[in-house]
Fold this protein.
Amino acid sequence: MLKLTGFVLPDVGILTLTALAGKTNPADVTLDDLDRAADELEDFYSRGVGRSLAAGMVFPNSGFVQPEFDKPQFQHKRKAWANLVLRGHRGLDLEPALTALGKKEYRAMALRGVEGSPHCVFTGEPAYLRVSRDMLPMLNGRGVLNFGPMGEAGLPVSDVILLAIHAMPLGCVITQGALLAVESDDEALMAAFVRANLRENQLFINLAGQNGYEKFPNHSFYKSRLITVLVDALNQQDSYQGDDYRTPSLNAYHFSNYGTNARVSIYSLPSSTVQFVWEASKDEHRAVWMRIVAGSRTEDKPESEELQQKAPKLTQRNLIYEDLFELPGNARAFLRTYFLRRPLQKFKRGDPRNGYNLFTESDLVSWKLTALFLKRIMNMERTRIEHIRDLGDRLADYIQRYDRKLLNILYKGGSYRNFRDVMLRAVKNYARYAPAGSEPLISLEAYVQIFEEGVEFEKPDWTLARDLLLIRIFEQLHRSGYLSQVAPELQTEDESEEATPA
């Protein structure tokens, strides 16, 4: 009986109701399923961490958090509020609840059965109540007309949508005093996020009762959790394959409805990044990718220790997952750090990226993974990628046979003029040492396509091409076993790089 609306908050709620019912298709949810969800939500919001969640970030000033309703003589008002916002789908007479709540403003909210009343803004179905921010996050307070449609305060919503909105927080990541709701143009992926968040939130609700939590555990680094769930969801989907399949995108809305600090931030993963993450996590790329991911994890304390606190703060973080949200804008720094294993001075003390070392971690250097990144994220021409690969192969062979010092010279970097001079000497020496009739180290056409816009005029991204060349060279030298023999002698005294490329 449920159907997605195309709006993130009610849709997360609808998928949460579906998961609570143990079903995968919203259309299969029954009235009895909604009844059970209403009972669970009433219990959740009436006490403990659920009440703290409602008061602090989702439903401030709602009937669930009114201190007056704690008094024995007024507890029937909280029950009336729960019936009003959670059980409208049963078509109950609103009069008892409205009478119990008493205030005229509550009676003015009722739209069911009112002649000429508007329809639900999300579904087009007959509206049930006109709601404000105590029932639907990110709206104005009751009676505030600013930005109200048709000059009327609040939004008309259906009974089922109102229930879904109250289920929505359990399908979100609860973090930093706010909720993180995930939206995707792929319903199965969006549902996977909701199910994962619901399982974790239900676990914490149970732990709260056992350990006396004051609040939900705070995920300090929610972006890491998003990618973790994304990878798990993608790996469970058989449909993410084939040339005719369009990889989904993902948006995450980090919001709080708290009165003095209502806010929202939006984080996006375009389909190109999702496609890269999915392909990097499987098949021939998986082994190296997962080792790179493992080397990017950090935490202040183990999660098991953090969960012993009354207000747990979870500090588990994966830096490469966090940096995925900056793509493609930070693509060059991303490639340089994680694939070329070169640290930047901007990293803070204790950051595992400070310990990256291309000479000692050459087993993590993968040209295939790098080429996938170039294809999906940087949209580099295929012929240019192939020219860089071929040049890297020849240079690796030349370094092993004739010129070990060239590797260190290339690694240290420098100006383009210096790089060009080094390459010209290598081309000359290669021609002198190579057997007669051999291909040149690199053709003029290939060199220009890789490094130059015109004669002696470098491409703006020539340093990127140099880094890619190093990735291929180090991979080949590692495979041959040569690098392990000479690495101690080749390493520079200072492995750090400046934050801006040469």
In short: Residues 8-171 form one domain. The first helix runs from residue 8 to 20.
